[in-house]
From TrEMBL:
InterPro entries: CYP450_monoxygenase_sec-met, Cyt_P450, Cyt_P450_CS, Cyt_P450_E_grp-IV, Cyt_P450_sf. This is 7-alpha-hydroxycholest-4-en-3-one 12-alpha-hydroxylase. One of its GO terms (molecular function) is iron ion binding. PANTHER family: P450, PUTATIVE (EUROFUNG)-RELATED.
Amino acid sequence: MFWDNVSLPNAWAIVTLTGLLFILSRYVSPSVESLEPPLLRPRVPLVGHIISMFSEGGGFYVRLFKERRMPICALPMLNGKVYIINSPDLIQSALKNNDISFDPFLVEFSKAMWGLSQNAGDLISDKEYLKTGLSIIQSTLMGEPLHRLNLSALTRLMTYLNPIRPGEELDAPDVFIWLRDILTDATATALFGAKNPLTVDKAHLMWTFDKQSMFVALGVPSFITKKAINARREINNLLLTYYESGSELKDGVSDIIRDRVKFLRSTGFTDDDLAHMETLLPWVGVTNTAPTLFWLFVHVLTNPHYLSRVRTEIEEIIIITNGSDGKTATFDVRKLEKCCPFLHACYQESLRHYLHSIGNRRVMEDTKVQDAQGRSYLLKKGFNIQWAPSVTHFIDEIWGPDANTFKPERFLDVSVQDEKKRRGSQLSFGGGKHLCPGRKFAFTEILGFVGVVALSFEAEGLSLPKSRDPGVGVGPRMPDWGGFDPGFRLRRREGWEDVTWVFQE
């Protein structure tokens, strides 16, 4: 037993400390009004929920929901509290409420996350900055600017596939790392153009930073986050050279980079400020997208039934032409959403199963949220709200008794009744006015790449691993290989040996 290994003085210290925490909690625990969500106290007063949140990651929210099945609750933490919403109705009510905002997190986390100077930190605290900055992101990730970005990313990805000749194989010792790194390179190239400083050999820096990014954002001491800080410094140096040389003005640079740099310079950002702040764009562009690409890739390519259906869909929307050097396959990726329902369904099921970024908002004024039955709950000013897709994505009453099964067919021929039940429960890309503006870019980049590989290549030695919770602050579930080999080989499919892939302008 645990106590058998604890010395008497230490045992008394533990008992005494626990007793003090219980006594202290009576005086410093937050009060809860009758109309607020019920208080769910931790086993260890004051700090129990904090310890569990960091030790269990996303599993913390799942455990709480399974134990209590509460639509909403308040968790006491030190002398404050956090509201946890599990009901999709209440989440949607919160997203529509003007007194509940994500903006404070944009400012508070950005300063530490990107290591901003005092100058940059002051500038992004301005409400007009937030409004204009987000407007630029949204406007440059739709219509023709989005299509150009898609074409650039996919064209770059093809530089890893088109050179594979008949009789040759691409041998990747780890499929996740291979996909992660080439996607990082392709996304960064689409953003920064031909002078992209985050080339494939530098891609690992973004992922080293990402592992501890939440701790960096929370201001955890640098001796704990040393690896992340060092990786971020290297990225900053690469971007500083890019901005000092005016590379954002070159041909092929995305609208989002060019327009944001123009705006940020006009507000007083220096080259060094840009090198820190704009690390944001490649980071948000790949850290959720790459794991989602991985899961879709392995599910489609390890399941013969899925693979056959995807091949049929993709073959129907490409045009093959003959030339002196072989065949050219022209792919119009604008047809993906409407003409590839099964591939789209596989993508949606991958999001449901594996992309579980915690939603965060702050209550700006005392307000109420209400569910579909008319029950309302008071939320007090100054406290944070969280919700977990790892809960809402697997509620049996919404997704059925097979909610834990990977089943793309659940997204095909959905009834009006089921669609209504699901509305607001799938939260991989957030919601409300902060619904991820890059979701359509991710959709095309992921489905376009998987479609090309599925139709014209054979994957050998590829395994479908289990998934693991990545820990606090990280959204996507990661592969847990166990006894499986993470490597695989890619070779041309018979009949597609001399095909070069291009994309419709």
